[in-house]
Design a protein that fits this description.
Elements (H helix, E strand, L loop, with lengths): L1 H42 L9 H7 L5 H15 L19 H10 L1 H11 L11
Helix pairs in contact: 1-3, 1-4, 1-5
Length: 131
């Protein structure tokens, strides 16, 4: 009987962990999409991507709209100027940019990861010191 109870708790724990991990990734992907969309629209207001990833995240993945609203604000606050950042190369294209590069760095950042984990109630990863 005791082993069955332990197995049930382990199964529940693994299920919750998997759901949390998937939710973290979904919210971070939403932030990436927001970063790209906002910056490309800032470069060219007539740009229409026809990308419905945000709709998919809301309707199919059932992401919490309150969390997504907070992610919108956080993403705009941290990434809205990426399109203005210069390029390191000597290019003839006056509109050259590294929007994707900067947005991907934001997506992979500990700052975004910790913020998302805090929003959905998962303990942020602690930094480990390398010796």
């Amino acid at each position: 009987m005791g082993i069955k109870i332990i197995a049930i708790f382990m199964l529940i724990g693994n299920t919750i962990y998997s759901q949390s991990k998937e939710e973290i990734q979904t919210v971070k992907k939403y932030a990436l999409q927001k970063c790209l969309k906002e910056n490309y629209n800032s470069i060219d207001p007539t740009f229409i991507s026809h990308d419905y990833s945000a709709s998919y995240i809301v309707q199919i993945k059932n992401a919490d709209p309150n969390i997504l609203n907070k992610i919108n604000d956080f993403t705009i606050k941290n990434t809205s100027q990426y399109y203005k950042m210069g390029v390191a190369e000597n290019l003839d294209d006056s509109k050259a940019n590294y929007v994707f590069w900067h947005c991907m760095n934001f997506y992979e950042s500990k700052e975004l990861d910790n913020y998302v984990r805090k929003l959905i109630g998962v303990i942020p990863k602690k930094e480990t010191s390398k010796k």
